[in-house]
Amino acid sequence: VDWPEATDEIEVNETIEVDGDFDGGNVRYVPGPGLGDGGQGEDQLPVFEVSEGGTLSDVIIGSPGADGVHCSGSCALERVWWEDIGEDAATFRGGDGSRFTVTGGAARGADDKVFQHNGGGELTITDFAAEDFTTLYRSCGNCSSQYQRSVVLDSVEVTAPASRLVGVNENYDDTATLTDITVIGDDDRD
Ligand code: DGU
Ligand code: CA
Ligand code: CA
Ligand code: CA
Fold first, then answer.
1. Domains in the chain, start-ordered, CATH in brackets?
2. Shortest CA distance to 139 belongs to which of 97, 180, 92?
3. Most buried pick, 24, 31, 141, 169, via CB within 10 A?
């Protein structure tokens, strides 16, 4: 995976609201103390909050990551690069029938999760790479509104060690479809 060179760097202390299309031009957005410390605290704020129907493209999210990107409804994340994931990289909200896409880009440095699916609908992750994480995708197990959720991984490269690609809730009939997955390196867990 070829990570992009940042064209510029901006510290972010207040969540950037994306309504429509936002092309970051490969600027590195560095979460400041106003968003969170990038640890596992659940009270952190996202760098970007993408409204229903929005597209976020060509942005680099720098360390310490905070709560990454939130989508409040269907959204597209294109060539988003998480250099050091904070609490998690992206959170997907919205009701049944929502459609979320993550296309291109890469993420690394998660103590725990990369993608957190809290709303309904389907998340499709294509042409994506991840390293140094525990779980690539988690369908929320205890959200206040629960949904049936689906995840599709196609053309995804992960670097070991990692604990799991997807965590889904069988009791809510979640589905996961995995195609063209490449695992680089040895995973020597028991
Ligand atoms: O209700 O308890 O980890 O969005 C929410 C859940 C919890 C979420 C999730 C997140 O899973 O806070 O980061
Ligand atoms: Ca969390
Ligand atoms: Ca989170
Ligand atoms: Ca991290």
1. 8-184 (2.160.20.10)
2. 92
3. 31
**Ligand 1 contact, 84 CB (< 6 A):** no
- The residue whose CA has the least distance to atom 13 of ligand 1 is 42
> In angstroms, rounded to a whole number, what is the distance separating the alpha carbons of residues 34 and 45?
8
* Residue of 71, 115, 116, 117 to mutate, ligand 1, most atoms within 8 A of C-beta: 116
- Which tokens in the block code for residue 132? 């140094």
Query: Per-residue confidence at 188, pLDDT binned at 50, 70, 90?
Result: low
DSSP category for residue 122? E
Task: Name the average pLDDT for the chain.
Answer: 96
Res. 89: pLDDT tops 90: yes
Give the whole-angstrom CA distance, residue 11 versus residue 151.
32
